[in-house]
Amino acid sequence: MVNIAVAGIGYVGLSNAVLLAQHNGVVAYDITGERVDSVNAGISPVADAEIEDYLRTKPLHLRATTDKMDAFAEADFVVVATPTNYDPDYNYFDTTSVEAVIEDVRQVNTQATIVIKSTIPVGYTQWLRAARGDEKILFSPEFLREGRALYDNLHPSRIVVGADTPEAHQFAGLLRQGAVRDDVPVLFTGPGEAEAIKLFANTYLAMRVAYFNELDSYAMTHGIDTRAIIEGVGLDPRIGQHYNNPSFGYGGYCLPKDTRQLLSNFSNVPQNLIRAIVDANATRKDFLADDIAARDPGVVGVYRLAMKTGSDNFRESSVQGIMQRLTARGIPVIVYEPDFPGETVFRHEIVRDLVAFKQRADIIIANRHADDLGDVAGKVYTRDVFGRD
User: Fold this and answer.
1) What would the DSSP string read from start to end of 301-322?
2) For the chain, what is the domain count?
3) 254 catalytic per annotation
4) Which GO terms describe its biological process (predicted)?
């Protein structure tokens, strides 16, 4: 049994901790005591059905702590899964949390292999190794959906490790050991290639979202059927009938920041497409906000802030951009979000009574259809043409 520490009890960290704790001893470290207490009580602090089930029903070798020494001192591997938010002032991921964890680890453990799961810029791992004189730092990108993170770890599309060393092979083996899928493709690359794989994969997904959103904008402008066009286009097997449902824009924690980071990595490279993907997201929100405002609503209601069904993540949700644009036009906005603490969000009133919310809103914007809104379907504004995703 291998001793593993995981730093960060968010979607990425907790899903990896649960995956690895099926066969190994895992200590999950976080600075937030509530998250630690929750994990130790067998309760998931994040909305993820598989994590909730595994914590409740599976015999995991998992415990959580706020004590760095306790977490890192005896670890063979330390998985770093702390937030790396994009800093628009510097056009760069804020990697200070990653560096802080690595410093904490090395103060008590000089032998552990450190595996960064946090998303980082291309070239960062190599720079960090050289700066610290530490070759036992690896990068292994994650490809997880919020709300289905453990499922995606149990059924991985691929495992990528940015090194071809015994430790890299051992870590990949630990991930495969915990997976349900038997035939997982495993790729060992250089660190820069692994970092680029993550950013280019997410930017491609953002491009696909932007493409079908622009198709929808065209159809709306010309009074033709978005769904019929998408279905006809998707019958080409090279395109397919997946990841094609229009929305208010790509959102969530990963796609907005990863596309901007990749764009900054392109600063000295001739390009048009990456810039267009980033710009297209703003253009889509401008277009939809104009369309909503043209209906002259007295009050606009926002039904849920989470980026998608089954997620409790409000960060960078696409509807926020619509809200900001409506507010700039002087249109009052109220929000139905019963899970959000406090009485306001982004200075907008939270209405927790769904009946009152429906009565007060002239238009209700919802990124996806919801059964709760069936009785006021005539008020609902959504670009969800397939009722999924």
Assistant:
1) EEE--SSSTT----TT-HHHHH
2) 2
3) yes
4) polysaccharide biosynthetic process
Domain boundary among 167, 189, 211: 189
Q: Do both 155 and 303 map to the same domain?
A: no
Of 81, 146, 102, whose CA–CA distance to 313 is shortest?
146
The pLDDT value recorded for residue 264 is 74
- Tokens representing 25 are 């001893």
Same domain? 269 vs 135:
no
Domain extent at residue 181? 3-189
| pLDDT exceeds 60 at position 223 | yes
CATH of the domain at 310: 3.40.50.720
Q: Residues 102, 106, 108, CA angle at the centre, nearest 5°? A: 130
Question: Residue 132 corresponds to which tokens in the numbers above?
Answer: 């610290």
Q: Residue 139: name the closest of 177, 107, 93, 171 by CA.
A: 171
Query: Domain check: are 258 and 346 in the same one?
Result: yes
Cβ count within 10 A of residue 306: 23
Q: What's the pLDDT score for residue 90?
A: 62
Q: Is 388 annotated among the ligand-binding residues?
A: no
**Does 245 count as an annotated binding residue?**
yes
144 is in an annotated binding site: yes
Q: What is the pLDDT of residues 109-128, one digit of tens each?
A: 999 999 999 989 899 999 99
CA-to-CA distance for 331 and 315, rounded, in angstroms?
Answer: 23
Q: Which residues contact 155 (CB under 8 A, 6 or more apart)?
A: 179, 180, 181
The pair of three-digit structure tokens given for residue 160, joined into one six-digit string: 């990528």
pLDDT digits (tens, 9 = 90+) for 349-369: 999 999 999 999 999 999 999
Q: How far is CA 41 from the centre of its chain?
A: 25
The pTM for the full model equals 0.89
Quote the percentage of the chain above a pLDDT of 70. Answer: 94
Predicted confidence at residue 316, as pLDDT, reads 63
- Tokens encoding 1: 């049994």
Query: Among 145, 171, 189, which residue terminates a domain?
Result: 189
**Which is the catalytic residue, given 4, 7, 219, 254?**
254
